Amino acid sequence: MSEFQLLKLPSVAFREVLSQIHINDIFLLSLCSKRTKNTVKRNYNKLLNWNLFVCSRAVYCLGYQYLPDIKRAMVAVREKGTLDTERMEHVMIDGKEIPIDRTPTANFINLYSEDRKSLLTAVFNHINELFDKNLHTLIIRPPSFWVLYLGDKPFVLVIIDPEIEDQEPISAEQCKYVLRHCKTNELCLNCVFPNGFRYFGSIAKHNRIVVRHGSWLILENLISLGQSCTRIRIEKSNLTFKDLNCLIKFWHRKKVDCFRQLVFQCEIIRGINPFDGLRENTILVKGPVSLKCDGDTITLADGFRFVEREDGQILTYAQEELQVPMNVFVFDKVEWVEGKGPPNTS
């Protein structure tokens, strides 16, 4: 069989070949030599719409996703351990010979090392340089928080997921670091915080944050979240109507100015209303009306009230049943849904 001189193809033809090759094979091709790496880097279509993700669970995995819910592994970095790698093929990565094989059924590439952290970092740097792709998603299994240092731009999504139900809490220092420094558009904290953990500092800015185990949250944290996060979801917390009332008062005084939606199940204290102390700033709805803003639509029943701030922002809440999470909405500009019209007010 005659050899095919791939690197001697004209640039247009080489780009067409790359467009027909699986991305994992393009990665393998780039490992053959500096020349192949530079040729791929120069000719690969960097406008193709896919994102890069890293998962630091039992096996460190780096992969790609074309759609939000569809992820495919590119490289799995595994412990070398006692594995006999002498008969395996080897590739050069970051100046080191790395054993390599392939999982035929899943089509991804296995790399083996005694220092998985250094190898995954080197592979990420190689892929980032090759395809000009920054990290989109991080899925972190504690204690592998070092992956937060991969890349130099904010992430789109960070999920801290211990992967098991009966999980050990992450350390207090790890908690503080994530809350203060994690730069991502969306942060999902599926981890348990240490018993008695308290935090009084600022919280990094996020478009959306989810706290699955919120028993550590106190009023000061709720206010910090409202000052830095747009959409907030809190589960399993000890927050109460009284805390919500304080948050709304801070919002009304413009000391909490970021959040637009807060979802959490709170303890209802008899005799306390979320709008206590703000009665003169509330508007009474006469007849059911619907509000729409940024894709959210809610219906306020006859006799319900919402709070209006002097700059025109409107805050209201909804809770249909005692066990249903409380939904608090802040609207910048309200669109009264057609057919409903603005409320009569008093």
UniProtKB/TrEMBL annotation:
Residues 3-47 form the F-box domain. It comes from the Eukaryota. InterPro entries: F-box_dom. PANTHER family: F-BOX-CONTAINING HYPOTHETICAL PROTEIN C.ELEGANS. This is F-box domain-containing protein. It comes from Caenorhabditis tropicalis. The lineage of its organism: Eukaryota, Metazoa, Ecdysozoa, Nematoda, Chromadorea.
